[in-house]
Write a structure and sequence with these properties.
alpha+beta; 5-stranded mixed sheet; 61% helix
Length: 354
Amino acid sequence: MRREFLKYLFDMPLLWLGIAVLAGLIFVGDTITDLEIAFAVLYVSVILLSVNFGRTGAIAVVGIVCAALTVLSYFLTRHGASHAGLINGILSLVAIGATTYLAIRIETFDARAREAQSELARMSRLMIVGELGTSIAHEVSQPITAITANSNAALRWLAATPADQEEARRAIERIVMDAGRAGDVIGRVRRLVARSSPSRDTFDLTEAVGDVLELVRGEIRKNQILLRTELASDLSFVAGDRVQLQQVILNFVMNAIEALADVDAEGRELLVSAAAAESKITVSVRDTGIGVAPARLDRIFEAFYTTKPNGMGMGLAISRSIIEAHGGTVYAAPNFPHGSVFGFTLPADGKTRG
C-alpha cells in the first residue's frame, strides 16, 4: 500500500501539488471565516480533481484528508455560532462523503470499462496474429532449418580427421545467430498477445514500428509488396502502452496488405513513415490499393462499420479508442494517385534517443 502511494506521488507530482495547495487554501478559508459559512463544501472540488489519478485508493485518501481538515477547521474556528457551524460541518462532511463515494464508483466503472476494452483489444490482436499464423510459422521455420543444417555441418567438421575446429566454430556461431532470429520472432508474438494491464511507459516509437514490420515481413513477401519506410532518426520518445500502439500500426499495415490484394503485383507498394512536427509525432501507412470511397472515410473508424465483406468493423474502432486514450488522433485520407492513407498523431514526450 505504501509503495502504491509513493508510486502515485511520483507519477503525478504536479497534480498532487495542485490538490495540496487547493486543499490548504480551502482549509485556511474555512478556518478564518465564520462558522455560519459552509466553506468546507469547496472540498468537493478537490475530490473531483483527484479523479484524474484514475485510482480509487487515491480518491479515498483525498476524501479522508478533506473530511479530517473539515473537522479540524471546525475546532480551530473562533468566529460565529457553534450550533450553526456544527450543522454546516455535518453538511460539508455529507457532501464530501457522497462525492468521494460517487467518484470511487465512477472510477470503478471506468476501470472495468478500460479492462473490458483492453481485453477486446487483446482479442483483436489474437485475431490478427491468427491471420499471420502461416507467415509467422514460415519466419520461425527458416532459422530452425538453418540451425539444423549448421548443426550437422559442425558435427561433420568435428568428426573430420583432423577436426576442423575453425569451420566448426563458424557453424556454431551461425547456429547462435539463427537461434536469436527465431527467438526474436517468438518474442514479438508473445509480447503482442500477452495479457497485461495498459501501461504508461516512455519508449522509442521508431523501434516499435520496426518490430511490427519485422512481424509482417513474411506476409509482405508472400504478397509481393514493395515495402518502403521513412522513419525519422531524430524522433522524440512517446509515453504510452507500447503493445497497444503496435496493435494500431499492425492493424493499419494488415488492412493495407488486404487492400493491395486486388492490385497487379507490379503496382503493390506500401509506405510506412514516422515524422515529428510541433511537439507531435505522426505515423502513417500509405498503400496503392483499391482505396476507400471518400463518402465512407467519415465513418471508417466507427464501431461495426466495415468495407470488408467478412469484416467485423472493430479493428479501426479499437485503434481509434487506443489513440484517443493516448491523447492523439487518427485519420484516413485518399492516397495520390490511388490507394489510402491511415495514420495517427501522438504528443511527443520530449526525450530523444541518445
